């Protein structure tokens, strides 16, 4: 059973930086994706960034150039470095996992079957 535990997050002012970490355990697939999603109050959960076990990444247009997803050598811990934060980035951020390699719809929430509990990111003006 895959388990995902997020940490990091918190509060910052607009223009600031935060970092999120997700530790995945129980992953037995040879190829898999780990991703970050976020959900703001009253909005749908949306994909932010994803990385597969080969290190291939993808980003939502809204965070390109500001966020960076990376993984450790063991490929079971991912980080999301968030720079240039804006108030619209305020949301609960979730780590997610699924079997497979990077593909066109890797930021679609429907295909992920493992989720963490989430960590809050708040950006104020």
Mind explaining what this structure looks like?
The protein has 125 residues and is an all-beta fold. It is 0% helix and 51% strand. The chain contains no helices and eleven strands. The protein has strands spanning 3-8, 10-13, 18-25, 32-39, 46-52, 57-59, 67-71, 77-82, 91-99, 114-115, 119-124. The strands form two sheets. Strands 2, 4, 5, 6, 9, 10 and 11 form a seven-stranded mixed β-sheet that branches. Strands 1-3-8-7 form a four-stranded antiparallel β-sheet, with no helix packed on it. 32% of the residues are buried.
Helix and strand arrangement:
Layout: E1 3-8, E2 10-13, E3 18-25, E4 32-39, E5 46-52, E6 57-59, E7 67-71, E8 77-82, E9 91-99, E10 114-115, E11 119-124
Parallel strand pairs: 2-11
Antiparallel strand pairs: 1-3, 3-8, 4-5, 4-9, 5-6, 7-8, 9-10, 9-11
Task: Give the number of DSSP strands.
Answer: 11
The main β sheet shows up as: 7 strands, mixed
Order of helices and strands: EEEEEEEEEEE
How many DSSP H or I helices? Answer: 0
Shape descriptor reads globular
Q: Summarize model confidence as the mean pLDDT.
A: 95
Helix content: under 10%
Q: For the terminal residues, how far apart are their CA atoms?
A: 41 Å
The low-pLDDT segments are none
Strand content: over 45%
- The secondary-structure class comes to mainly beta
Gyration radius (Cα, Å) is 13 Å
Short description:
The chain is mainly β and 125 residues long. It has strands at 3-8, 10-13, 18-25, 32-39, 46-52, 57-59, 67-71, 77-82, 91-99, 114-115, 119-124. The strands form two sheets. Strands 2, 4, 5, 6, 9, 10 and 11 form a seven-stranded mixed beta sheet that branches. Strands 1-3-8-7 form a four-stranded antiparallel beta sheet, with no helix packed on it.
